[in-house]
Input
Amino acid sequence: MIELTSVSEMRAWSRAQRRAGRRIGCVPTMGYLHEGHLRLVDRARRAADVVAMSVFVNPLQFGPQEDLARYPRDLARDRAGAAGRGVDCLFVPSVDAMYPVPARVTVDPGTLADHLCGPHRPGHFRGVLTVVAKLLHVIEPDVAVFGRKDAQQAQMIRRMVADLDFAVEIDVAPTVRERDGLALSSRNVYLSPAERRAAAAIPQALAAGHEAFRAGARRAAEIVQAVAAVLARTTALAPEYVEAVDPDALAPMDPVDGGTLLAVAARAGATRLIDNVILGEGLAGDPVVDG
Ligand SMILES: Nc1ncnc2c1ncn2[C@@H]1O[C@H](COP(=O)(O)OP(=O)(O)OP(=O)(O)O)[C@@H](O)[C@H]1O
Ligand SMILES: [Mg+2]
Output
């Protein structure tokens, strides 16, 4: 595995791969890798000949009150994890390498940021789309892989690529979960043992929403109520939102159907957790890891 830190070297590597006739898969991350990230690598490997992974904690997507300074980092471990999974190129740019001057022009998520996490994290998705646009332009992959845990982000990236004619295929992978259903996330490392136990109520609540749908509920309020009832049992969780939205427009949907995206954000102490399910699919099909 080769490790690169400059934009020019990264682009040169990609162009050499392209000249050699190889398809390039790309997996953008903020590092502190877990099995969820590594499953994205597996998918990129299946869809391409070589895989580039980026590890970059993007300041542009953190709000002033958010956890940029204490975001977990362990490059040595990430290096080993990525190499062990067959990543060919690890791109680890500094903030200066990505933003030699402060960005003036950024990518606006439009109405896709009007619901779910958008109102709770002003500017976050502008930061995400801007850095993903930059990474796609630097790496020029044939396919880029993202996780469904971040469903709003994945949908925005799909639409950015479609609406702005990026020449890349977007693949969205299922959410990898712990045995008790908690979605893997780098930020789970912040959780105290009590918070970690409480966090399992989030997938349980989504499963209750899915169950209500299977039992025939179609009004959004009924589904949301089924989710909220489970979350309310755990005082260690403070729900931020429970919403049933159209998977394309990410706007509230009522009545719901089998394609509706049911999404939750909740705080366990200072840690903000998100998760979601497609109502017709449920969590049952999501891959589980030991943990
Ligand atoms: N449990 C998971 N299953 C599948 N994909 C995941 C999972 N967690 C993260 N991803 C995906 O990995 C990519 C990089 O995400 P990121 O580096 O922000 O990790 P993260 O675990 O979401 O960290 P954090 O919770 O701190 O944001 C994104 O496409 C994200 O959707
Ligand atoms: Mg994330």
